[in-house]
Amino acid sequence: AQSVAQPEDQVNVAEGNPLTVKCTYSVSGNPYLFWYVQYPNRGLQFLLKYITGDNLVKGSYGFEAEFNKSQTSFHLKKPSALVSDSALYFCAGFYNQGGKLIFGQGTELSVKP
Amino acid sequence: ETGVTQSPTHLIKTRGQQVTLRCSSQSGHNTVSWYQQALGQGPQFIFQYYREEENGRGNFPPRFSGLQFPNYSSELNVNALELDDSALYLCASSLGGQGSYEQYFGPGTRLTVT
Q1: Which A positions 6-35 lie with beta carbon below 8 A of chain B?
Q2: Closest CA relative to residue A65, chosen from A44, A84, A89, A48
Q3: Most buried by CB count within 10 Å: which residue of A55, A69, A77, B44?
Q4: How far apart are CA A94 and CA A76, in angstroms?
């Protein structure tokens, strides 16, 4: 079955430190992978996507993600975390089955000053 | 802001009632997808409409139905509401139904079923 997993419910980081939010996927064929962020009482905001090409994808607000086919991972990274980065982050995969975007369960990122 | 709007913002209904949620897609987008996000969970795909036709459906019963209009706005209808239907309903618009197009989400409609 196609799936996306985020193994950490919560990630805590000190402001200024690098952050990583983990995502793994299970799919047959080549996946399209996305990261979204959700602030309280708001919809999801697109950060970046991997379709094909370079394994390092750069997105909005200084975020980037590394696609690793051998490890079936697509981890979200940022070199220097900000308190304002605190939010709920979702990894998602698109498997071209009738428009279906499959989401992970989400990771709560908390950045402390 | 994405340009995707949803109405109403909040809604309270009683079990057994019917509800209609509305979504206006971002300008230039011809595809709308609907998702259900229960508390503490990731969004679950309900269905997608591409140029007024259903393009795919998730694991939701037939009492969840939809519609897309010529201007690409969309409605989600839920009949015979159950308590478990309480959730945030999100719509997302995109340039097409393929995966290469990122989906842009609206702020959601919070539905509470009592």
Answers
A1: 32, 34
A2: A48
A3: B44
A4: 17
Over the stretch B32-51, which tens digit does the pLDDT of each residue have? Answer: 999 999 998 999 999 999 98
Eight-state DSSP code of residue A81: -
Whether A40 shows a pLDDT value over 90: the answer reads: no
* Distance of alpha carbon A49 from alpha carbon A58, whole angstroms: 8
How big is chain B, counted in residues? 114
Tokens of A54: 């370079």
Tokens of A100: 């279906």
Token output for B55: 């393009």
Residue bearing the bigger pLDDT, B102 or B67: B67
Yes or no, beta carbons of B41 and A49 under 8 Å apart: no
Q: Is B98 on the interface with A (CB under 8 A)?
A: yes
Determine whether the interchain pair B43/A32 forms a contact, defined as Cβ–Cβ distance below 8 Å.
Answer: no
Strand partners, B21: B76
